[in-house]
Each structure stands twice: as structure tokens, then as C-alpha cells.
Design goal:
- By secondary structure, the protein is mainly α.
- The protein has one domain.
- Helix content is 72%, strand content 0%.
- The chain has 18 helices and no strands.
- α17 packs antiparallel against α18.
- The chain is globular and about 70 Å long.
- 43% of the residues are buried.
């Protein structure tokens, strides 16, 4: 599955709303789905999850052991994640109230360390799936962000959203989650710097849409104006929840699908086999990289699988590699970069620059973590 939106990869749509030219989100026109059609992935995954959750909750058992094991896996994962999902919905709702223009202005001047830092942290705080982030990143490029800023934004963002961070804390604990966040930010900053350096030296083309910020630009004043414009009414909180539930639709569809995949792995792949092939070794790390390339799902779907790699094989490096390499080798992402930036070279530099860093850190985490 190469796209959130269907069976064929696309660069025309996103899992989330595409930013409007003037900063507003076109939720009614650019969503990942045509809501007049059934979202088979969402409702199919939800139906399977609910059926097997209740199956285990009500203590049903049948002669087919694999069904009993699968139901236990679904029950265990959903019980672990529910609170993170609920808080994530609220965070998504809050972020939906922040104008896109304010997010774009927060990136700062391209080609500078300050600009890279802003782009990296903007990627972290945007609660979108990997394909939603991709579309926003391409729009940022069209708005004039530097190549380094766009790449830092894409690399830092996919699983570092509020909702997924909460879920990762629930699955693997706070210390490892913080370590993964720090290392992903490090890769994003280093990669962004390398991309900007390649542009300065002529190795990669410069963004033709680059523009300077106004001399009187002040992010703090723009934020303060928006804060003062908020009307603190009870209806606001209901609106935040509705926005969060709507915005979390894409997160939930891939997250539930990831729960099913992780439960299937637990059911049909024994702990011994899992440890043998995906353990903390060079072979295990290599196989994890191959799996991350082949199993192309949104970051929400990869999170439960990555957590399973951590807990069942005691291989934190493999877990980190699965999360990060899935973004670097994503076919949709590579093709979208190529189409937007009109350069195969830029698109292929994404895995070329990021994968060595990911594999090195994965190896160090496995042996010294």
C-alpha cells in the first residue's frame, strides 16, 4: 500500500487537508477521502478490532488457537493505547484551531541553523500522518522554504506527533520514547544541514520559490494576535473535540490497521523466530530495514510494529530503524519530492543521506542501549 488514500500512489492528495494559498486549510476539498464513499480500511480495521476485543473480553475460546492468540494481541494492544489515542484526539483538535499561516511563518529564514531548528520543531508539533506531512512539506517548498528546511520537516515529523508520542510512551516507556525523539531530531537537523550545504555548493538545485521574510516579521506578535482573538466559550471545547475526532480519522485508520498487523505477527511468528531473525544483530537490523521498505504504511500503522520489535526482541535499534527507515524509503514520498522539485537527484538524496545515519544509530542502540 503506497498511499493513505488508495491502492495506487498519488501526489495529488494527502491524508490531511492541504494548506490553502492564504493559510487556511481546505478541509472540505482536500481531505484524504471522499466521505461519500466508504473508508474500507478504517471501518474494516475497526470492525475486526472490536470483534476480537470483545471476543477476548467476554472470555470466548474456540478450538482454533490462532484466533485466541490473535484476540489476546488485539485486546492487549488496545488496552495499552486507548489513553494515548484519547489525549491525541484533543491535541489534534487544538492544533486544528491554529491558522496554517502561523505555522508557515514559524519556519523562519531558510539556509540558516535557526531556520532548520524551526522547521524541525514545526514537524514535531504537527500532528499529521506521514503522507499528510508530505503534502504540507511540498506546499512549504512551494511557499519558499529551503530544501534543508523541507527535508528536516519531513524527517522529524512522521511519528513524533503528539498522539503517536503518547502512544509510544504507553508501548515502550518514557525513557526510550525520549531517546527516539532526540535521535530523530538529530537526524533531521544533520540531514537538513547537509541538504542546504549541497544547495550552496551546487550539488543540488536551489528552491526557485525562495523568498525573504519581511523586515518587520515577528512571530511572537502574530501568535499574540491570534491568542487574543480566541473566544473562550464552552462551545469552543466541543468544537475542539469534534475537530480532533475528525482530524484523528486518518490516525485511527492506520493505527487500527497497525494493531491488526502487530497482532498477526504475535500470532504467527513465535518469539524464538522473531528473536532469531529480527534480534539485535547486523542481520536483524538489515532485515528490519528491508521490512520497513516493503511494509509501506503510514507512521501510525508502523508504531505498534516498532514497539513489538522493541519488546519481543530486545532490539531498540531495530525499533528505531523501522520507524525512521519507513519514511526515508517511502515510495510515495520519493515520487512526490521528484514531482514537486522536478529532480530525481533530490528525491534519491533523501535515502542516500538519511539511511547511513539511521543504520549507525540503530546499531549503536542495539549494542549500547
Amino acid at each position: 500500500m503506497s498511499s493513505c488514500c488508495g491502492d495506487k500512489p498519488t501526489t495529488e492528495k494527502s491524508c490531511h487537508a492541504e494548506p490553502h494559498e492564504h493559510g487556511e486549510s481546505k478541509h472540505e476539498h482536500s481531505s484524504c477521502h471522499d466521505h461519500t464513499k466508504c473508508d474500507w480500511l478504517l471501518w474494516g480495521s475497526l470492525t475486526i478490532s472490536v470483534i476480537f476485543y470483545l471476543f477476548h473480553l467476554l472470555s470466548f475460546t474456540i478450538s482454533l488457537d490462532w484466533i485466541n492468540y490473535f484476540a489476546h494481541g488485539v485486546f492487549d494492544l488496545l488496552n495499552t493505547m486507548w489513553w494515548g489515542v484519547l489525549l491525541g484526539i484533543m491535541f489534534v483538535g487544538i492544533l486544528a484551531k491554529i491558522p496554517q499561516s502561523l505555522v508557515l511563518s514559524a519556519l523562519g529564514q531558510g539556509g540558516t541553523v535557526k531556520g532548520l531548528l524551526r522547521a524541525t520543531f514545526a514537524g514535531v508539533f504537527l500532528d499529521l500522518c506521514s503522507h499528510g506531512i508530505l503534502m504540507v512539506g511540498m506546499k512549504l517548498y512551494q511557499k519558499g522554504a529551503s530544501l534543508g528546511q523541507v527535508m528536516a520537516f519531513l524527517i522529524a515529523s512522521p511519528w513524533n506527533s503528539f498522539s503517536l508520542t503518547l502512544i509510544m510512551i504507553a508501548l515502550i516507556g518514557l525513557p526510550w520514547t525520549l531517546a527516539f525523539i532526540f535521535l530523530s531530531l538529530l537526524i533531521a537537523l544533520v540531514s537538513g544541514y547537509i541538504f542546504d550545504h549541497c544547495v550552496k555548493t551546487g550539488v543540488l538545485p536551489q528552491n526557485p520559490n525562495t523568498q525573504s521574510l519581511p523586515e518587520n516579521f515577528q512571530f511572537s506578535s502574530d501568535f499574540a494576535d491570534h491568542w487574543r482573538s480566541i473566544e473562550w466559550r464552552p462551545s469552543l471545547f466541543g468544537s475542539i473535540f469534534r475537530e480532533g475526532l475528525s482530524g484523528a480519522r486518518m490516525v485511527l485508520r492506520w493505527l487500527l490497521f497497525g494493531v491488526i498487523l502487530a497482532s498477526l505477527i504475535r500470532t504467527f511468528v513465535s518469539a524464538d523466530v522473531f528473536q532469531q531473525w529480527f534480534g539485535p544483530s547486523l542481520i536483524g537490523l538489515t532485515l528490519t530495514l528491508i521490512a520497513a521498505t516493503v511494509i509501506e504504511v503510514c507512521s501510525e500503522g508502523s508504531t505498534p510494529i516498532a514497539a513489538d520489535l522493541m519488546t519481543r526482541t530486545n532490539a531498540p535499534g531495530n525499533s528505531f530503524t523501522f520507524l525512521m527507515a519507513g519514511v526515508s524509503t517511502d515510495y510515495t514520498e520519493v515520487m512526490s519530492i521528484k514531482d514537486t522539485m522536478k529532480s530525481w537527484k533530490v528525491a534519491l538524496f533523501l535515502p542516500l543521506i538519511t539511511l547511513p545515519q539511521i543504520l549507525l544509530l540503530g546499531y549503536l542502540l542495539n549494542h549500547f542501549g
